[in-house]
Specification:
alpha/beta, five-stranded parallel β-sheet
């Protein structure tokens, strides 16, 4: 009987409000590391989300559908409203994938890795540096630019541009 390779499940958590090209870059590269990638869309009401949790899950599914089709890895988008490590455990993840843009990201993520390792030392965290062209992009800045009528094309997918603009008008 041949040994079957154990499926490696990764979890890429975030609020994705809105999903950016930086997020999509990390997802695409994360798919190379795992057999199954769960994109965990977090509630995080402290970030004052522009879109509801249900809207963000649907947007992430839509914007990642082509990546799932192009990859040998399975992609699943799930909402979560619990401690990250509890969600990772229930999803069967052995790896948490995090994107880094700058040194300030690293300082925060370094602290989180330490806390997460205390909660479950069996789940590893892997950091992927954002592609240089995506490093300045953050969902927070996209929303801020949009709030003042600035151009957000090039930061987020085309359909997201119109959804963000429409949501800003209704606020």
């Amino acid at each position: 009987m041949a040994d079957q390779k154990k499926r490696r499940t990764g979890l890429y958590p975030g609020t994705f409000d809105p999903i950016t090209y930086g997020h999509l870059d990390i997802i695409k590269r994360g798919l190379k590391l795992v057999d199954r990638l769960i994109i965990g869309v977090a509630t995080n009401p402290s970030k004052n989300p522009l879109f509801s949790l249900e809207e963000r899950v649907a947007q992430v599914r839509r914007e990642t559908a082509h990546l799932a089709q192009q990859s040998a890895s399975e992609v699943e988008v799930l909402a979560f409203d619990e401690l990250l490590m509890h969600f990772a455990e229930s999803a069967g993840a052995s790896i948490i994938i995090r994107g880094l843009r700058a040194v300030s990201d690293f300082e925060y993520e370094f602290q989180m890795v330490g806390m997460n390792a205390h909660l479950n030392p069996e789940i590893e965290t892997v950091f992927l540096m954002a592609d240089a062209k995506y490093q300045p992009i953050s969902s927070r800045l996209v929303k801020e630019i949009a709030a003042y009528g600035g151009k957000i094309t090039g930061f987020i997918p085309p359909r997201m541009v119109s959804e963000v603009a429409d949501r800003m008008k209704s606020r």
